User: Fold these one by one.
Assistant:
Number 1:
Amino acid sequence: MKKYKWLVPTLYIIFLMLPIYWLINMSFKTTTEIINTYSLWPQKFTTENYVKIFTDSTWYMGYINSITYTVFNTVISVAAALPAAYAFSRYKFLGDKHLFFWLLTNRMAPPAVFALPFFQFYSSVNLFDTHIAVALSHCLFNIPLAVWILEGFMSAVPKELDETAYVDGYSFGRFFFKIFVPTIAAGIGITMFFCFMFSWVELLLAKTLTATAAKPIAATMTRTASTSGYELGLLAAAGTLTIIPGAIVIYFVKNYIAKGFAMGRV
Amino acid sequence: MNKTINQKAWYFVIPVFVLVAFNAAIPLMTVVNYSFQETFGNNVFAWEGTRWFKQILLSERFHASLGRQFAFTFIILLIQIPLGIAIALTMPKKGWGVPVCLILMSMPLLIPWNVVGAMWNIFALPDIGFLGHSLNAMGFDYNFTQQPGDAWLTTILMDVWHWTSLVVLLSYAGLNSIQPAYYQAAEIDGASRWATFRYIELPKMKKVLTLAILLRFMDSFMIYTEPFVLTGGGPGNTTAFLSIDLVKMALGQFDLGPAAAMSLIYFFIVLLVCWVFYNLMMKNEAQS
């Protein structure tokens, strides 16, 4: 039985790769070929779908918009979560447990519940259709997540580290940035990975809060699918390109993923 | 860790508190407002009391989508959790296989949700998709846009494809935290493979598995984008899960009152289940 153990993960990975392969396959076909013939690889290999995306500003701006609000959100989430996670991991204070659970409930809130009120709220403060609106709205689920992961990493650092630093005459600020932050660098990396991931893949809120100026690539895709008939090749090419940022991020954190999960927090 | 009592710690929490309150409390209050009122447009509202709540709780449409939602979440958990554990158990523990498995398995997690839906749509189309074409070539009458059974099968398969890796990664991390000494002791005692799993691996994975079940419950319970892009809730209403139904009601028909009441009931159900899970998890953590 041991000999065939590798079969399970291999079959699973093949299952994972098949739809991705099919998407890439479609992206290199012409629209007529897609509609008229069924083939396992492109018969008339073409890159015109990609050329269209890189030359048409409504397409490539979608990518820039998505990346912009994702980066904003990651920075805001981690910056706000760092001190909070430190407080939760080191101190007891009035209402700490309730506050922690309340934060988590926001990770549990279905975005569909918030879509309409968000639209009205961000319109009323004149932030509708801006990158910052999407970045702020994604804080709803990313900040609780960031606090949760960081708290796990910080609790694993013994308190003696703090006390020794104070004895050595460090001020709180110097201790925090010179000693504590480098100690949990891996944890911060993991947190950023998850914030990036959940902001990048979310569409419902991003779509509701934008019209043209900050429209995410994912929304551009849905509108293409419904308005200009069925340009499957173009859709497939755009889809393929959305996989790339994620793949790059995974490559950089691959050594930390397992370790990060091992802290028992996601 | 014994924590010091320090009320000033609140200062550290303020940024998070403000940002989340700004995002959660204000919109939630709007929803609560709507749920008790009737709107006539132009910002004219009339008090309706608990009428919308009664209407939603008694409506067959809500019962149907709630039923579909529970069925879907239950099936998802039933498939993904055992499958995830099985894959984590058979994954290589060292060597070049580890990063290859980790990178390839994490891929589905980082694809935007609507692209997942679009990808599976293209993959499953009966005439030009690999899955649909192959199934039909094998003699099955498969068409997910017209047959409810096929639509369910495709939606479930898509979710298994999308999220099983999360369970795998969590279980794998749990397995990695087991000291080799435990396995050596099991070997000396002549424990069977099943006994090793049941009495060593499973208890050690308890914490990450609770988390995996919690996350999979929450996320599958609020699933929206993927089935919306794949089937649009159809054929008919057969794959219209709670979120899809809710968005249809709120943004499509602009029935703000009933939609708001439904949102609150929906949120309350999620909260209730998660509260139970959370307490279980904290109890586990206190024990270890």
Number 2:
Amino acid sequence: MKIYADNAATTKMSRSAIDAMIPYMENVFGNPSSLYTIGQEAKEALEDARERAAKCLGCEAREITFTSGGSEADNQAIISAARIGEKKGKKHIISTKFEHHAVLHTLKKLEMEGFEVTLLDVHENGVVTAEDVANAIRPDTCLVTIMFANNEIGTVMPIKKIGAVCREKGVFFHTDAVQAVGHMHINVQEMNIDMLSLSAHKFHGPKGSGILYAKKGIRLTNIIEGGAQEKGKRAGTENIPGIMGMVKALEDACASIDTYTQHLLPLRDKLIAGLSEIPHSILNGDRQQRVPGTVNFCFEGIEGESLLLLLDDKGISASSGSACTSGSLDPSHVLLAIGRPHEVAHGSLRLSLADDITEEEIDYLIKSTKEVVEYLRSMSPLWKDLDSGKRPHVI
Amino acid sequence: MALYSSKVMDHFRNPRNVGSLENPSGVGEVGNPVCGDIMKIYFQIENDVIVDVKFETFGCGSAIASSSMATELIKGKPLSEALELTNKAVAEALDGLPAHKMHCSVLAEEAIRAAIKDYYDKNNIPYDPADFPEPHDEEEGAEEEEESTCSGCGSKAK
């Protein structure tokens, strides 16, 4: 059996998104900045796509900027708010300890420029509250940037409430919604969101396409300088095929959220229940307050990379927050932020499901994970010590 | 998987000499759970020859493969030869390891040394302490200097 269970990393493109791109590579390949027909056809398609994307997010077309993806959108949102803030002498930014690195590294850069950054602690259930945000806002705060849903553990933040707090205090609110768009109902106006980043390849669209929504009146700072594309705020010839594929995927995803959720929730919960049967395992993040497809567990006494390699041998593609898979010596900053000790965080597994997953596949995921965890524990001196009581269990 | 050589994957998938020994002549354990890898090596020694060797490892694919290969390389060998086994020899026997995984081969070398030292200590056999540096201080295997430091145990990346 082959199961791709790493949809939080990227998704398979949908047929309809691929089909939406092809005409813009084969036929309408013109540059939207050109004045002849084939260029203007591309321009029309671009502006039509902008309208349709805006409809999906509940905003106006002029509030949509097409980017190369979520990271660029995050960078631009944060830098723009910082530039607006510093003109008014406001150089304090609030975020959380478990943001994506596209946010954390941009904030690091601003810190080196003299900005002050408050990274909120994350509660053990993988959520920050509106109260946490309210308590951290200061007169010199220019931006609150908090992810909609966490990429590793899938927990969902109370975005509408956080947005309301920011509105009340007159602080810009940006959300990295890369893991949420297409998976949950989002309306930027109703949710008090000033800026939002999204990435097409997380909802069956193409890689290399994203959107920055910025409420009208927010003056964007260029990350890429050059021509006057995107109202002069994002230079470079527009990635028309990517945009067409993205917007088609976005429309499809937004239209099917209810059926998607209805199908996925019971299967996700079955997966959680099944993996919970493994002794000394723990679900990371709140059981309910999470995106429909993402499940993240820690298993004591084993290491995540060997778990992934053996699951791969069984046809399962998954990911882990262990140090060996993160490319550094530390395990995932997300798992550390929710209070998992290093030795437990090394044994993490993220399974992120697509909506075509079947019950039979869920059973196979559970069975395979149980087998691999048991096997790795059988050769683990750490597990032996835990099992014999020589070392106390942490979970 | 292109991350590892097929030899690494073979030793990871079918590790040789997994397990423990009932009354070992020597045991060596290195690494710690905070860093994400522990290797434990058991020896049976007769007439200064390693007649049997077993290992248990908590760690990534290359840690398991390095343990497996290291035990293969010293099984049936005199202690003097086992003492000369370097992490580089383990890595080479595996057709190489990615630079950031070289520390796994260092752990294997350290675990073997620790087991030999344990055997010497148990049997009051004199040895040169210089042959047994403190584990984790090894500089061998460092292909590239990395900036990261393990926040768990404070050891430098290798």
